[in-house]
Amino acid sequence: MQIDPWPAPRATAPVVGTVTMPGSKSVTNRALILAALASGPSVLRAPLRSRDSELMVGGLRALGVEVTGDDAWHVTPNPFRGPATVDCGLAGTVMRFLPPAAVLADGQVTLDGDPRARERPMGRLIDALRGLGAEIADDGRAALPFTVAGTGALPGGSVTIDASASSQFVSGLLLSGARYDKGVVVHHDGEPVPSLPHIDMTVAMLRDAGVTVDDSEANTWRVEPGPIAPLDLAIEPDLSNAAPFLAAALATGGRVTVTGWPARTTQPGDALRDLFTRMGALVTLDEHGLTVAAGDRLTGLDADLHDVGELTPVLAALAALAETPSRLRGVAHLRGHETDRLAALATELNNLGGAVTETEDGLAIEPRPLRGGVFGSYEDHRMAQAGVLIGLAVDGVAVENVATTGKTMPTFTTVWTELVSPR
Ligand SMILES: O=C(O)C1=C[C@@H](OP(=O)(O)O)[C@@H](O)[C@H](O)C1
Ligand SMILES: C=C(OP(=O)(O)O)C(=O)O
């Protein structure tokens, strides 16, 4: 247990070091769904072990899937069966990826989650599943909790969905679509879909598993019906969780390397290379990994983060430490994340003396000297990371419920402390 609020370590010298990230949440939870729907047993090597991935494992086990192992997960699929109950916690990947799979169960599956999970956008996905032939009882709430009444198969076919609130609606439908009788064709109709690299990740992982996917037309994805091949997959390190560690170099005039950075990846965290460069960092990708070193000055950032929204909390914290103003745009959908991240970032940074304004689709951040205080984390792992980063550069910052980082990285405070205050 961590002391709550957790006194964030203050850097006494430039942070210099090397860190290794646990596996990617997004890759692990996609791989689990694919393995559960595959035509034979799969092996997932170096999976992320965290609240979000353990919830996915728990949900799949409730449906009858066998998952064993430790450093590698062995997944043995079985036909999904109900009755079952699934706890989605606060995991977007569980609440959006599991229902499209659960509709294939023979029997009833009830899904629920944390109180905040009941407020996260879900209704469009429920409607889309109904359009594909699923029977779902949600008491008219268009949100968690709801119950899927499956018959062991789903007709599938063509469906139109407004996925402007979350790319995960599309990814969820595509991940299971090959197992629907007619496959699935998903058309998006609405404001632009956020986090497109995450949909590219879904498509790439489906193709690697032998599924035919056509994404040649904008806002339309076609998944042919057919088997999903068993996986033997080494999970990439989580590049979004690398953000605070790399930012530690920039906040202190130091240099940090993240090992095992993939040369090619669909993870949106890869955009950090460009984003940190634009803030004045010196960035090198070589056989040692990704190294980010502070340049002469830390400048603010004017960027559209629509594709990489999950990087926003850490970038906003770093921007609050920069010498020039920042504008973070294109991330209105963050109001539906673990918390309303735009409101939470403005509130918490301003509590420490910052000058942060919420805009219609993002944040405007003016440089200001910050002071100590308690930084609220709102059960949001990335808010906690943002607060810890501020505490590295500002005296007397304590982060409330830092344990919430366990959503995607239970080792966060240990790895952080070892990096920033080496013995
Ligand atoms: O598919 C995924 O793994 C994710 C998609 C994104 O969701 P949104 O499109 O809802 O932002 C991202 O923010 C989330 O952290 C993970
Ligand atoms: C938005 C995020 O998570 P989730 O998968 O719960 O949507 C995130 O990790 O930044």
From TrEMBL:
This is 3-phosphoshikimate 1-carboxyvinyltransferase. Catalyzes the transfer of the enolpyruvyl moiety of phosphoenolpyruvate (PEP) to the 5-hydroxyl of shikimate-3-phosphate (S3P) to produce enolpyruvyl shikimate-3-phosphate and inorganic phosphate. Phosphoenolpyruvate binds at K25, G92, R120, Q168, R341, R382, K407. The gene is aroA. Belongs to the EPSP synthase family. Keywords: Amino-acid biosynthesis, Aromatic amino acid biosynthesis, Cytoplasm, Transferase. It is found in: Cytoplasm. The active site is at E310 (proton acceptor). SUPFAM superfamilies: EPT/RTPC-like (SSF55205). Its EC number is 2.5.1.19. InterPro entries: Enolpyruvate_Tfrase_dom, Enolpyruvate_Tfrase_sf, EPSP_synthase, EPSP_synthase_CS, RNA3'P_cycl/enolpyr_Trfase_a/b. It comes from Cryptosporangium japonicum. PROSITE patterns: EPSP_SYNTHASE_1 (PS00104), EPSP_SYNTHASE_2 (PS00885).
